């Protein structure tokens, strides 16, 4: 299955609480922190909600 590398590039200070909870759900807590998540519709939806705060790179195939 493919994976996504998600990096928090902008601070969520001033963002609504709902968006901050989405970032925590993705595992992003500090600016410039990165996580690797499976490329699923659920993760894509979460990334779409915070697309102005994160940078996404398509990762490699994972087993």
From TrEMBL:
Domain of life: Bacteria
Ranges for domain Large ribosomal subunit protein uL30-like ferredoxin-like fold: 5-54
GO cellular component: a single term: large ribosomal subunit
UniProt cross-references to InterPro entries, sorted A to Z: Ribo_uL30_ferredoxin-like_sf, Ribosomal_uL30_bac-type, Ribosomal_uL30_CS, Ribosomal_uL30_ferredoxin-like
Biological processes, Gene Ontology terms: translation
This protein's UniProt keywords: Ribonucleoprotein, Ribosomal protein
GO terms for MF: structural constituent of ribosome
Family assignment from sequence similarity: Belongs to the universal ribosomal protein uL30 family.
Record text on subunit structure and interactions: Part of the 50S ribosomal subunit.
NCBIfam families, alphabetized: rpmD_bact
Name the record gives this protein: 50S ribosomal protein L30
């Amino acid at each position: 299955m493919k994976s996504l590398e998600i990096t928090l590039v902008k601070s969520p200070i001033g963002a609504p609480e709902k968006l901050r909870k989405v970032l925590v759900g993705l595992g992003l807590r500090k600016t410039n922190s990165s996580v690797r998540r499976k490329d699923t519709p659920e993760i894509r939806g979460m990334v779409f909600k915070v697309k102005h705060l994160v940078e996404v790179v398509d990762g490699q195939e994972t087993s």
